[in-house]
Amino acid sequence: MVKGFRKIVRILRREQGEIALFMLKSADTDIADYWNVIVSTPDYDSLTTKKALKHLVSILRSNLSKDVFRRILRVTVLKTDDPFTREINRAFNVKNSEEYIHLSVVSGIYIENAIIFESVSVPSAGKIRHKKKHSQNKMADVR
Hints:
Layout: H1 2-16, E1 21-26, E2 35-40, H2 42-45, H3 49-63, H4 66-70, E3 72-77, H5 83-91, E4 99-106, E5 109-119, H6 125-142
């Protein structure tokens, strides 16, 4: 299962560049091995939630085995400045590896079990747009 999700992270990184958060959180159910996929990227910040979810679910469906895909109960796309994303980024710095979490509370959310594949602080899409606009203005002043 981990290998399949590592592939998804590589695909997202290739398509979108930075990933603020990619994690699997155990589903809040008595049935073992069912997961919530939680993702946050600057590129998804600039899309509607519906478009971001459609894109992510399409990648999951076409790149995971049917057995692994069936174990996903929920897919959540969060903004990079969402309090949960920011708190995970503060607590865990994970890049190109996995970190397993057991019995934790993060940003008021109980996490029984989770696997973090990526957790890196990145500028939100709004800040990126502001920087680009500001740097373009500076370039215009130079000319």
